[in-house]
């Protein structure tokens, strides 16, 4: 979904600095978007690395400051506690939870110095409800949900809004990876459990990111925006 978020913000006239641990994919996205006249810049970023976040600070300050931060990086693991090794647990927590913590610790001062702004943390429906298996994933995304509320309360006086988005089944490579780790029939099960009877499109999540990033949501902070086709409502 990250590339979709970058594009929708850039098409609104934003200068977008975006990061990914996959340098080749990041450079390809940068070239494609620049070829379409969009003002974007790729920076190699491992979200679990404090040094990489420090490097990002230099880049965004050179770009003129920071008003919007989107924390979108994530990995999924469908296994329960008995089947999840400590290394697998650490990987999910490092990317999904520690990455958000490092982003806040490193970039909130830049947003404050820029006059305030908006932070959007991409959590998940599994940051709101439990699931069979998914022990590391639900732990990490549930943490993001409450980290968002804590940050909203802490940084509101600085003019910084912080909200979370909770996607359901969105048609992405990550969803395909997730389905591959589940029993046969999981795809149909997701569709049957979703009242709209389809998977979401990344652009539909990006539209919600844009709303929370913009002044259209100027009195919204500490909120959970669910984008799941009705999945949670039907539970």
TrEMBL record:
Keywords: Oxidoreductase. The keyword Oxidoreductase applies. It comes from the Bacteria. One of its GO terms (molecular function) is oxidoreductase activity. Coiled coil: none annotated. Belongs to the short-chain dehydrogenases/reductases (SDR) family. This is Cyclopentanol dehydrogenase. The lineage of its organism: Bacteria, Bacillati, Actinomycetota, Actinomycetes, Mycobacteriales.
